[in-house]
Amino acid sequence: MTFFGVDGVITGTIGPFRIVRLLGEGGMGRVFLGTSPGGRQVAVKVVRPELASDPGFRRRFRGEVEAAMAVSGAFTTPVVDADPEGPLPWLATVYVPGPSLQAEIDARGPMAEPEVRTLGARLAEALVAIHRAGLIHRDLKPSNILLADDGPRVIDFGISRAIEGTALTATGGVIGSAGYMSPEQVAGNELTAASDVFALGAVVTFAATGRPAFGTRKDDPYKWEVLRAPGRLIAKYERELHAFDFPGSDATTVS
To answer: Where does the signal peptide begin and end (predicted)?
Structure first.
């Protein structure tokens, strides 16, 4: 793995991929746009050095990557290559050039009813594929959904669990994003496939209303609303959601 920076431009290679540019970075590491020797575009996520030095993280990352490579749903981003044993572990997925659902709603406002119905059905299909591989996403949110021409793509599945128990959560924090975490996630309890279904409902609510169902802060009022008053959503968004009736859309449908 080599990187070269000239006038702020990052070049070099990661595994077999030539790095084109930095796409973004977050708590787990940096994401680069890369190309394969054959010209295929990929998104390469490189783990932060402090996580790479944690044996527990490496063990979990290795297991999650192996499971993620078995996911082949139409509305997911396949893992095409990875090196969990390298000095800085990395994984590469198919690159999706479309905007995130978050960016799309921020720019254009809520989706129309037919669009929301289609989005919800396709995201549910993505979760089926992820859960069948034995994974739980743990951080399904609008910024982890990319909009391709032929439908949404769920990204970053199979890597959130690797962070558990590292310095990033040592202060009592939980992995997840305010507005989309399930009650058990907020409480710090064990997660199941149903936790992702809760997040799916929150994502669909955001797409239909343009607002996060439970706000965007992990403070006490947020936790109270998620843990004690999820039924308030019906009254809170009654006008926007009155036309959306998804028969059978409960936790058993996706899990």
So the answer is: none
Say whether 149 is catalytic.
Answer: no
Burial profile 160-182: b = 16 or more Cβ within 10 angstroms, e = fewer = bbbbeebebeeeeeebbbbbbbb
> pLDDT tens, 217-227?
655 556 656 66
Tell me the two tokens of residue 227: 């843990």
What CATH number is attached to the domain comprising 149?
Answer: 1.10.510.10
Instruction: Out of 94, 125, 141, pick the residue that ends a domain.
Output: 94
Per the structure, the count of domains in the chain is 2
Domain that holds residue 152: 101-160+174-245
pTM for the complete prediction?
0.81
Q: Confirm whether residue 141 is marked as ligand binding.
A: no
Give the whole-angstrom CA distance, residue 255 versus residue 25: 31
pLDDT, the chain, mean: 82
